[in-house]
Each structure stands twice: as C-alpha cells, then as structure tokens.
C-alpha cells in the first residue's frame, strides 16, 4: 500500500505544480468598417501572463495616431503615435460600430512576451511615429502602422511583409511569422481581462 501511495502523491504534486506555473499568452484582434471592409482596419495584440491561474501582468500593443483612433489617413504624413490600451481600443471600436474579431489566442514562449514588453517601451518612448504608408522600421526614429507595431516585436522584422493584407488577413501573417514562439492555441478568453470584447460578441449573436 505504501508503495502505491508514494507514486500517487508524486503525480498529484506534479499536477498541481504544472497547473499553477506562470504562463504567457497573446491574443490577436482586429476591427474593420462594418459596411466597407478595408475602409478603416486595425490590428492589435494583447499580451498577458498568469500565475496560479490568475492574470499577473498584461499590456496591449494598439498603435494609432495620438490625436485619436479615428484620425487614420491612408496617404497622410507621419504623425505622433500613441499606444492605446485594450479598453481604449474597444471603446472606440464600439462607439464607431466597428466589427471586432479575435484572430487567434495562444500560449506563447516567455521570450515573445518579453520582446512584446520591449516593443511597448519603444512605442512609449516618444521616438516612434505613426503613418499608414511608407514605414521606417529600423533605427531609433521609427515610423510604423498598427500591423508593423505588432510584427516588429521580433528583431528579424525585415523578414515580415504584410503586403496589402489588413485586419484578419494581416493577423494571419503575424501568426505565421510568430510560429516559432507559439506553444498552443487557447480557446477560452479570460472573462475579466476581455470583458468588453466578450460582452460585445454576446450582444452580436
């Protein structure tokens, strides 16, 4: 009996250790015009970390003009950019009646999470501008649109070409570009962290 108990206790301990370990996640979202696809698309990403199953840290990369999310001009000059929070991005999307979609939700390697944090600091440094066309993706004084703000988390950003893809199409390319950092696909969204999206999705059904 003692011989049976010891292995069982070991397996239970290992189960709880595994369940309680810190994990990193990424959720890719997009929104677009409700009537004219491609008229005002936007891609953004939420990174978060859990410890003992609870969210311990999170941040969003949602790069848009500092004057407002609605001030995007296809042929505009470079302007001061701002990284918006998830709630700020969702508030605008709901207010402007955008179609918001979850493109993918993944457990990711900690390295991608830390690269995302470094990109967040870069965007918040004041040295990065926003422009839809004609991005400058190297050096300190960068000019990025929303897709490159997410994709250029990786140092090998020259290998990423979004082409004319936008919203979900652009997010699919980001997912492929990040493939070496994705551990597993996740189905359930954290109800506290993503409450505004989940509420919107429920109302649209």
What does this structure look like?
The chain is built from 6 helices and 9 strands, in the order αβββββαβαββααβα. The chain has 205 residues and is of the alpha+beta class. It is globular, with a radius of gyration of 19 Å. The longest helix has 19 residues, at 2-20. It has one domain. Strands 3-2-1-6-9 form a 5-stranded antiparallel beta sheet. Strands 4-5-7-8 form a 4-stranded mixed beta sheet. Residues 4-18 have low confidence and may be disordered. β2 and β3 form a beta hairpin. The chain has helices spanning 2-20, 86-95, 110-123, 146-151, 167-177, 195-204, and strands spanning 23-32, 42-51, 54-61, 63-65, 79-83, 99-108, 129-130, 143-144, 182-185. The termini are far apart.
Q: What series of H and E elements makes up the topology?
A: HEEEEEHEHEEHHEH
Structural class comes to: alpha+beta
**Cα distance spanning the termini:** 55 Å
Name the average pLDDT.
87
Strand tally: 9
Helical proportion, percent range = 25-40%
The total of helices stands at 6
Count of structural domains: 1
Major β-sheet strand ordering: 3-2-1-6-9
